[in-house]
TrEMBL record:
<dbReference type="GO" id="GO:0003700">
    <property type="term" value="F:DNA-binding transcription factor activity"/>
</dbReference>
<feature type="region of interest" description="Disordered">
    <location>
        <begin position="410"/>
        <end position="429"/>
    </location>
</feature>
<feature type="coiled-coil region">
    <location>
        <begin position="80"/>
        <end position="114"/>
    </location>
</feature>
<dbReference type="GO" id="GO:0043565">
    <property type="term" value="F:sequence-specific DNA binding"/>
</dbReference>
<dbReference type="InterPro" id="IPR036576">
    <property type="entry name" value="WRKY_dom_sf"/>
</dbReference>
<protein>
    <submittedName>
        <fullName>Putative transcription factor WRKY family</fullName>
    </submittedName>
</protein>
<feature type="domain" description="WRKY">
    <location>
        <begin position="219"/>
        <end position="281"/>
    </location>
</feature>
<dbReference type="InterPro" id="IPR003657">
    <property type="entry name" value="WRKY_dom"/>
</dbReference>
<keyword id="KW-0539">Nucleus</keyword>
<feature type="compositionally biased region" description="Polar residues">
    <location>
        <begin position="420"/>
        <end position="429"/>
    </location>
</feature>
<keyword id="KW-0805">Transcription regulation</keyword>
<dbReference type="InterPro" id="IPR044810">
    <property type="entry name" value="WRKY_plant"/>
</dbReference>
<keyword id="KW-0175">Coiled coil</keyword>
<dbReference type="GO" id="GO:0005634">
    <property type="term" value="C:nucleus"/>
</dbReference>
<dbReference type="Pfam" id="PF03106">
    <property type="entry name" value="WRKY"/>
</dbReference>
<keyword id="KW-0238">DNA-binding</keyword>
<keyword id="KW-0804">Transcription</keyword>
Length: 429
DNA sequence: CGGATTTGACCTGCGC
DNA sequence: GCGCAGGTCAAATCCG
């Protein structure tokens, strides 16, 4: 705008020559003035533009900041969107896993059903086999009351089974256990299954409670003073025995299930069932440990091992001691398995200490072998195990303990006021 | 008087 | 289903 104004003034000044200098001067002044105006105008313009530029920069910075903010928000939105998608994917995966879990569960149920069906068939088959192979031994045991396992071995050797090869192989590898297997198949057929360990354990525990250990001693008293306090709660006339059978219960602790009864004349037979469920005095520990150990040995021979088979050495050893010394005999007669420890010879021949040692030295390996291999034994049995492992002369100590218990309690029985001692049974019900 | 023992009744499992 | 034998209970009795 300033340049247009200057050009119009210059055209008018050229038509007047006489006043040229003054006009020039005036024009120059005006022109200077205009220049000054223009200068200020330009300065103002620059200033204005500068100010405008300054505001524009501020707005630009603000816009940049807003833009960055928007960009950040967009990033957050995008991030949230990604997380949402990821969560949705995880939910979908979880849903798939639930569905697969459901399918697997149905599959497991199906497998369990199949297993149960096969298990029942197996039990049925094994019972059928035992009805062929074990009947003779059982009948023999029932007739004689006691089964001498050496005789059982002979029976098996002379009369091999006619069943399938699997059964025949087991019998060949496990001579001596057929009587117990037969008894087990008759009483607790489920023990024949080595696959159902849980049921096996419960069954075993129930059998342990019913296992009997019969200790034969010579005593004029109606019961053995073995350190425990016994309370008589009943007496019965047993069939086939002129002497009454007395029933005793341990009174050292309320609820202790150990009981026994007695009958006989000169030979005292204490039959223990179960175990004490309370601490025992030292004098009672020997007998309790002995009976517990014997019961465990008896039951161990009837329990399958981890591989489903049974270690025959225990029963073989028992049979050995039985046939040679009449000390440990195993009875498969109903209702419960019974092991009889015959100490009558020791009591009758107190001077024959070597015989006692020899007899119990045969029993000790039976006990220690089983105890060292079976972790599920009770504390009482473990105590016996500790004694066996700690004392190499345990058998001698055990003989001395038992005989001393019996002997010191009844040092001289010639008082004549008691002549019907007992077949004592220690029942656990 | 309280605890232990006796004894007859009752229950249960098993064989016939 | 019935009878028998073994095992348990509980009231009566005994004893220190």
């Amino acid at each position: 705008m300033a340049a247009t104004c200057n050009d119009a003034i210059a055209v008018g000044d050229d038509s007047t020559a006489s006043h040229s200098n003054s006009l020039v001067m005036s024009f120059s002044k005006k022109r200077l003035a205009l220049h000054e105006v223009d200068f200020f105008a330009q300065n103002n313009k620059k200033k204005s533009q500068h100010d405008h530029d300054h505001d524009h920069d501020a707005q630009t910075v603000h816009c940049i900041e807003l833009n960055e903010d928007i960009t950040g928000r967009n990033r957050s939105i995008k991030k949230y969107g990604d997380e949402r998608n990821e969560l949705a994917a995880m939910l979908a995966e979880l849903h798939d896993m639930n569905a697969e879990n459901h399918r697997l569960r149905e599959l497991v149920d199906q497998v369990n059903n199949d297993y149960n069906a096969l298990h029942m068939q197996l039990i049925k088959l094994m019972k059928t086999q035992h009805s062929h192979g074990g009947d003779q031994a059982i009948e023999k045991g029932k007739k004689e009351g006691m089964i001498d396992l050496m005789e059982s071995n002979t029976v098996q050797a002379l009369e091999p089974t006619k069943d399938n090869s699997s059964k025949a192989r087991i019998i060949e590898e496990k001579p001596g256990e057929q009587a117990f297997q037969g008894w087990l198949s008759n009483k607790v057929p489920r023990l024949n299954s080595f696959m159902d360990h849980v049921d096996q354990a419960s069954e075993t525990m129930s059998i342990i409670k019913k296992a009997r250990v019969s200790v034969r001693t010579r005593s004029e008293s109606s019961m053995i003073a073995d350190g425990c306090q016994w309370r008589k709660y009943g007496q019965k006339m047993a069939k086939g025995n002129p002497c009454p059978r007395a029933y005793y219960r341990c009174t050292m602790c309320t609820g202790c299930p150990v009981q026994r009864c007695g009958e006989d004349k000169s030979v005292l037979i204490n039959t223990y069932e179960g175990q004490h469920n309370h601490p025992l005095p030292p004098t009672a520990m020997a007998m309790a440990s002995t009976t517990s150990a014997a019961a465990s040995m008896l039951l161990s021979g009837s329990m399958p091992s981890a591989d489903g088979l049974i270690n025959p050495s225990i029963l073989q050893s028992a049979a050995f001691s039985s046939s040679h010394n009449n000390m440990a005999t195993l009875s498969a007669s109903a209702p419960f398995p019974t092991i009889t420890l015959d100490l009558t010879q020791q009591s009758a021949t107190n001077s024959s200490s070597q015989l006692q040692k020899d007899q119990l030295s045969l029993l000790a390996p039976l006990l220690s072998e089983k105890f060292m291999s079976d972790p599920s034994l009770t504390d009482t049995v473990n105590a016996a195990t500790a004694a066996i492992t700690a004392d190499p002369n345990f058998t001698s100590a055990l003989v001395a303990a038992i005989t001393s218990i019996i002997g010191t309690s009844h040092p001289n029985n010639n008082n004549g006021n008691y002549n019907t001692s007992g077949d004592q049974q220690c029942n656990n019900s």
